Structure formats: C-alpha cells, structure tokens
Amino acid sequence: MANPLYDELFGKHAGKDTPFLHMPDGALWTHDQFLKMAAQMAHAIVATGLVSGDRLAAQVEKSPQALALYAACAQTGVIFLPLNTAYTGTELAYFIENSGARLVVCDPLKENTLSPIAADLGARVLTLDAKGCGSFNDATVGQPQEFTPVNRTADDLAAFLYTSGTTGRSKGAMLSQGNLLSNARTLADLWRFTDRDVLLHALPIFHTHGLFVATNIVLSTGGSMIWLPKFDTDALITHMPQATALMGVPTFYARLLADNRFTAGLTAHMRLFVSGSAPMLADTHHAFEARTGQRILERYGMTETNMNTSNPFDGERRPGTVGFPLPDVELKITDPDTGSQVPQGDIGVIEVRGPNVFQGYWQMPEKTAEELRADGFFITGDLARMDEDGYVHIVGRGKDLIISGGFNIYPKELEVVLNQQPGVLESAVIGLPHPDFGEAPVAVLVADGPQDLDMTTISGAVAKTLARFKHPAHYVQIPELPRNTMGKVQKNVLRDVYGELLQTDPGA
Ligand code: AMP
Fold it and tell me: How far does the centroid of ligand 1 lie from the alpha carbon of residue 459, in Å?
C-alpha cells in the first residue's frame, strides 16, 4: 500500500514528538499530535460518504485544523480544494458547481448563505471556525487517531487550485501528487531546508505559495512553522528572533522595512528570506540588504506549475530577476505568434515543462489545449527575457502588453524608469484604448509621502530615457495601488477605472 504524498509529507512524522506548529499564543502542536488530528478528520470525511477522487471544498480561516484538512484529504485520496476566504456566496456557488464538490467545509458565519446553494448542488456543508470549532470538528470527536492511507500513485490528483481569474472565469488547475512532491523535494534541497528550520508562516493557505511552497517544504524536511493567522508587522517582529526563514510577498518586505524595529539584530537568527507571487522592486531588494546585510531570494511560480525558477541559494541573487529554471524544470522563451524560441536576450513568453506542471484545467479541455502543448510545455502567459548569465527577467503578463501604433511596450520597462524618479514610491503602467494608436500607456503613480508629484519633471525624465512611442499619454497620481491578497497589482481594476480617459483626452 502506498500513498506518496501522504507518506512523504505526513506519514513519516508519525510518532515524532518534535514541534510542528508554534502558535502565537505559545501553544504547540507536535508532528504526532497534528497527524492524530488529521487521522480523525480523515475518518470524519469518509463517514460523510466521500471516496477517493471526490472533491472537498474548504473556505476556512487559517488554523492548525485548516491545514490538517489537507493532510486528511491526502490520506483519504479526496481532492483538496482550498478557497480564498474573501469569496462571496455567488463566487462559491460557481466553485462548488464547477468542481462537483460533495463536501464543503466553511466558517460557521457562512453556513446560512452556503447551505441552500450547496443543497441545490447536492453537496453537504460542515463548519470549522478559526479556533478549530464547528460541526466538522464535532464529527471528528471520538474518531480513531490512526487512519490507513488509501492507496494512491503519484499520477493521482491531490488538489484543485482555482486561478485568480482576473480575465474570464476562474479555472480549476488539477495538481497531482507528483506535481506537489517534485516541487517540495526540489525546493527543500535548493533552499537547504532541514528539520532544524523554523519557518515564519504568515501567508494565506488557500494559495500555492502559503499552502504548497511553504508548507510542503517544511513537511518534507520535518521542521516547524510559526503559524500566524495573517501578515501583521508587529507579530512578525515579535516572532522573528525564533525563526530561521520567512516566505513572503513583496508587500511583506516593504512593510517590514517601513518599521524601525526591523533591524540587522532582529534578523540575525534568520538564514533565508524568500519573495514571490508578485515582482519585487529592485529598490526593496537593495534597501533590505542595506538594513539587514541579507539578500532576499526571489523566485517565480504560478498556480498551474508551482515554482518554476529561483535565484540561487549560493551565488548572486540578482535584484529584479527571478533567477534560473529549477533543476528539473525546462524553461524556454518563445515568440507568442510562432511558438519558436527567441534568441537569448529577446523578449517572449515563458514556457515550462517538468514534473511540476499541472494536469490541465478541470472540465475545460479547450482551455487546457490552448495553454498546455501536446509536448508538455505550458504557456505561462508571462513575458520575459533571459540575460547573458541565464537569469530570467519578467517584464509583465502577456495580457498587460501594450501595443501602441503597432509598437510593443512592456509596462515593466516604463515602471522601472518611473520608480527611479524622485518622490515616486511605485508605479503601474496600463494600456488604455486610444483613438489614434489603438492603445497608449498611462502611468499611475504613488508618491513616497503626502506630496503631490511633479509630473512635469517626471515626464521630462521619461522623455530623456525612453523612445517617443513609449511615453505615457497621461500621468495619474493615486494614494495606493490596488492589490489582491497575494500582493499582485490589479491592473484590470486600474483599466476599469481609467478606461475612457484617452477617448476624451488622448494626451500629448
Ligand atoms: P498565481 O497563479 O496567483 O500564483 O499567479 C502567478 C503569476 O504571478 C505568475 O504568472 C506571474 O505573473 C506572477 N509572479 C509570481 N511570482 C513572480 C515574481 N517573482 N515576479 C514577477 N511576477 C511573479
């Protein structure tokens, strides 16, 4: 009997009294206690009638119990479907219907909204709150603390993660046990994780970063995590002296740097800071090194593929790049029109192939065929170039590319120049419909203080640095860029807000 995911991440820790989850209030879960709880959950899941291959949708607050649900699904062979806690009832209805989930575990506060929806779709609802209480927990009471894992292979599906769906409907990316395990092994090795590591975990666990990258690495090596419910600067500062590693989105690092208590002394015990899920400003990277003497390691991945590239553990961590393809990942940069590889240094779309690449979108064969080639390469939609040393530089999402009067404009190129201007904290460049050029760039800027930015000076500097066709038609200042929970700038929101701007005033 074998179940690779369960055996390699969870089962091998059975009987170990070593720490697994350190709670902010000082409570501790050992590996063994955690596994006993997961076994009771596995029995409770089976008792509801679910069998391997069925889907369990979970929209729950982060807690040890929420993570144990993942372990319980792994051992019962049930496909785990974690959902963003921000989703509304209408959105949840889509996920339940699309996935065909038979059991929905949600916060008690959502039960009244969800129950009729789930009932219509033939799914059952049980509850679990942030403290681990609710009808799902009640169903685990008195269950045996051991469960014989259901036989599975590496090719069997382990999880569906729905894409964030900023364009069109969200798609269920099907991830196999092998997809998750290959990435966990590769990254644990590359980033030198051991059972002595204590990861400061402040990410949500409904997304690949917090659930798979962070958690699977720690599980595969037998270390522990400081289990924070969410990002909070005070909590990170309080717990950092006990930790050895942090995984975060760029916003975590920007917020830590804004706090004077974040010093080299505070980070002295830390051996690794990882950033990903959104591009990190080179400025943040430099400021972090100046403050702490340590260099953030930036990596790149996505829901469909887990991680694809990483800056090196040893060797130069190059700001503004996502490093090299992982050892078991093939990466090429291709022409989006022809699919053929572009010369090194040219911009194209990233394609990846490897054991990390997902099995396709659930019940969307056409979408799968559009993005996953027959030869196994996945077309990521991210535009990038590879420099002469092999570092990958992401220049934006394909859908953010601006084509103005027939010329390609990569927003990142403009953003880098804008971010260097005095008084500018950060920027987002979007393409908007333009009566003459089809599309033209508009610069949305955020100041580093309360001042109004001097747009004449800024546009003058851009004019000196970049070709005429790249100059923004307009400069707009806003207090803060719209971001999703993973720190990604929501350019679609900006495009909606400023959609008509150039129709009425096409700019210079
Ligand atoms: P998600 O599927 O929500 O994880 O989003 C994946 C997308 O986030 C990728 O396709 C990239 O566009 C972006 N992304 C992830 N990591 C990075 C990074 N280090 N730098 C730039 N973009 C990133």
Answer: 29
Task: Quote the domain boundaries for residue 475.
Answer: 401-504
Determine the average pLDDT of the residues in 147-159: 98
> What is the tens place of the pLDDT at every residue in 100-128?
999 999 999 999 999 999 999 999 999 99
Binding site membership of 84 for ligand 1 (Cβ less than 6 Å): no
Cβ of 309 less than 6 Å from ligand 1 = no
Can you give the pLDDT at residue 467? Answer: 85
Distance 486 CA to ligand 1 centre (A): 9
Question: Does 2 fall in a domain?
Answer: no
Nearest to 383 by CA among 420, 346, 415, 417: 346
Q: Is 135 in the pocket of ligand 1 (CB under 6 A)?
A: no
CA of 277 to the centre of ligand 1 (A): 4
Average pLDDT, rounded, for the chain: 95
Rounded distance from Cα 185 to ligand 1 centre (Å): 21
Q: For residue range 208-220, what is the model confidence (pLDDT) as tens digits? A: 999 999 999 999 9
Ligand 1, residue 298: give the atom nearest the CA: 19
CB of 319 closer than 6 angstroms to any ligand 1 atom: no
Nearest Cα neighbor of 219 from 35, 485, 424 is 35
> For residues 37 and 71, what is the distance between their CA atoms, to the nearest angstrom?
9
* Ligand 1 site-directed mutation target among 488, 490, 491, most atoms within 8 Å of CB: 488
User: Does ligand 1 come within 6 angstroms of the Cβ of 397?
Assistant: yes
Domain assignment of residue 176, yes or no: no
Q: Each residue of 230-242: pLDDT tens digit?
A: 999 999 999 999 9
Tell me, what CATH number does 201's domain have? 3.40.50.12780
Q: Which is the closest atom of ligand 1 to the Cα of 397? A: 12
Write down which residue in 129, 152, 175 finishes a domain.
152
CATH number at 76 reads 3.40.50.980
Question: Same domain for 228 and 377?
Answer: yes
| Distance from residue 130's CA to the centre of ligand 1 (Å) | 28
In the chain, helix, strand, coil percent, each to 5? Answer: 35, 25, 40
Specify whether 134 is located in the same domain as 77.
yes
Q: Among 365, 309, 78, which Cα is nearest to 187's? A: 309
Q: What is the pLDDT of residue 166?
A: 52
Q: Please, which pLDDT band fits residue 47 given cuts at 50, 70 and 90?
A: very high
Where does the pLDDT of residue 469 fall: very low under 50, low under 70, confident under 90, or very high at 90 and above? confident
CA atoms of 316 and 311, how far apart (whole Å): 8
Structure tokens at 143: 């269950």
CA of 488 to the centre of ligand 1 (A): 8
Claim to verify: residue 413 and residue 372 sit in the same structural domain: no
CA 157, 145, 198, 185 dihedral sign is negative
- Here the CATH number for the domain that contains residue 478 is 3.30.300.30
Q: 393 and 463: one domain?
A: no
Are residue 141 and residue 258 in the same domain, yes or no? no
Q: How many domains does the chain have?
A: 3
